[in-house]
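Homework help board

Subject: predicted structure for assignment chain

Our instructor gave us this sequence and asked us to write out the predicted structure in token form, then describe one feature. I got the tokens but I'm not sure how to describe them. Can anyone check?
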Amino acid sequence: MNDENLPESSTSGLPAETSDGFSARSAFATTKGMWSRGAGDTSGYGGITRSLQMPGSSEPPFDDEAADAIHGRALEVVPALRGARVLYDRGELTIFVDRAELPAVVKAFRDDAFLRFEICMSVSGVHYPQQTGAELHAVYHLISITHNRRVRLEVTCPDADPHIPSVVATYPMADWHERETWDLFGIQFDGHPALTRILMPDDWEGHPQRKDYPLGGVDVEYKGARVPAPDNRRTYS
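My token output:
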């Protein structure tokens, strides 16, 4: 991928904002085929061409009572979120959080009576190699049983310093989710009680769901049948 094909980025690793409060949704890459990296395309959809775009940002109010209430209260109880990038898209609210502020933010989101996000449903990893300085993202999906609301928190860190504070002290059920995100994406959750691999063997090298991880594998044999590794399968013309 050539640098000239990448959009301008802000300090958060997202596209630069325009005057209307939404960031430009310029394409950062064009992919062809199902896998787009020159590997064997066994899907039969080798003719697919797609432009990849990053979502932008939104300015309140969002014309959504629950989202407006969550965002407004969050700014009251966590002043560090003032000026933070926010995205409201398809009825879902995402608040981007500086990694240094994450422990305080999740504690406030859990303990504040108005917010009361008691549960962290999942911690997901995402890898955006084109976002220099913010290549790795950790996404926290919170749910409030009390108020029947959902919110997403997103934290970025650079590939050169892949550290994000653990939220296990606030949300114990995030324990295995953080282990999986470390295992597959390489994000190190500082303060986690036992950050070890959960899917791959302990001596495995690399993190398989990163986009720079080679598409490969091992041949599988079962009852006389042999299935080649993905990078050795046939292609469709």
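Reply (TA_rk): Your tokens look well-formed. For the description, you could write something like this. The longest helix spans residues 65-77. That's the kind of observation they're looking for.
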